Amino acid sequence: MQIVRGKKLEKAPEGEFQQLVEESSRVVVDVGTGDARASYRIAKENPSWLVVGVDPAWQRMTQTSIRSRRKPAKGGVPNLLLVNASIENAPPELLGAADELLVLMPWGKLLHGLVRGDEDIWRGLRSVAKPNAPLTATVGTSIWREPVPRDIQGLPELTHPYVDEELAGKALACGWEVTGFQLTKAEEAAAVSSSWARRLDSASTEVIATLTAVAAGPGEEAGAAEQEQ
Questions:
Q1: What secondary structure, in 3-state letters, does 115-165 show?
Q2: Are 55 and 34 in contact (CB under 8 A)?
Q3: How far apart, in Å, are the Cα atoms of 78 and each of 5, 6, 22, 50?
Q4: pTM for the predicted model, two decimal places
Q5: pLDDT of res. 203
Q6: Which CATH number fits the domain that encloses residue 107?
Q7: Measuring CA to CA, which residue among 36, 80, 78, 77 is closest to residue 55?
Q8: Of residues 221 and 126, which shows the higher confidence score?
Q9: pLDDT value at position 106?
Q10: By the 8 A CB rule, do 100 and 25 touch?
Q11: Which of 42, 64, 106, 181 has the most CB atoms around its CB within 10 Å?
Q12: 200 has a pLDDT exceeding 80
């Protein structure tokens, strides 16, 4: 497993991750963590948790990594681990490790796969989750407002009908039961914690789509696969 330590990308020593898991009361995986500021904040607020930020662009995580490696009195958070990986190719150490997953304000392939219900993304999320682990995903809906960015054109908009009629079934086939969907103003969306979302001022008209799901157990996954067939 490749991890970010300061300004460097290093291979994690064998057994290090498992030791961190055993010392923690909860493992939270922040998928597509970006600059990892959200992961840092969660780790700082919950010192007994192990927070794992995962992103394929490791250079974006270096500043947060430097900050996290300071002494606790100076803002260090030893319970934060930053992993260089994409969720569709998660490291073996992460498989089945997460008590909770977050996908906060994703972009690029992760955003597209999440919204379209792409199998590689949703199965990748399921691969790192324990049975019954909750998933919270947030997306800013302004991306579907004119002028729509070129790479968003053609991407289905997250709405109640779309989630109920299209996305929920695809998620279930990948081992996730959608448990909720809501649209809220940015300042009211408790799950929004990425640095991008936190820069929104009180006058922002941004509306956040929040999708929640729970990882199915082995028996439920088998049933979902049979329904899909």
A1: HHCCHHHHHHHHHHECCCCEEEEEEEHHHHCCCCCHHHCCCCCCCHHHHHH
A2: yes
A3: 11, 13, 14, 9
A4: 0.89
A5: 46
A6: 3.40.50.150
A7: 36
A8: 126
A9: 93
A10: no
A11: 64
A12: no
pLDDT of 199: 45
Q: If you search the block for the tokens 């109640």, which residue do you land on?
A: 160
Domain total of the chain: 1
Identify any residues that bridge with 185 across adjacent strands, giving them in sequence order: 207
Strands 207-215 and 8-11, sheet pairing: unpaired
* pLDDT for 226 beyond 70: no
Residue whose structure tokens are 């291979």: 11
Question: Are 156 and 115 contacting, i.e. CB atoms less than 8 angstroms apart?
Answer: yes
Q: How far is CA 226 from CA 14, 15, 108, 125, 173, in A?
A: 38, 37, 31, 20, 9
Asked if the model's pLDDT at residue 229 lies above 50, the reply is: no
b/e code 183-215 from CB counts within 10 Å (16+ = b): ebebeebebbbbbebeebeeeeebbbbbbbbbb
3-state secondary structure 170-187: HHHHCCEEEEEEEEEEHH
How far is the C-alpha of 207 from the C-alpha of 157, rounded, in Å?
A: 13
Segment 19-37, tens digit of pLDDT: 999 999 999 999 999 999 9
Q: How many CA atoms lie within 13 A of 33 on its CB side?
A: 34
Look up the domain containing 107 and give its range.
2-228
Tokens of residue 55, six digits: 């992103």
Q: Single out the residue of 167, 212, 214 nearest to residue 189, CA to CA.
A: 212
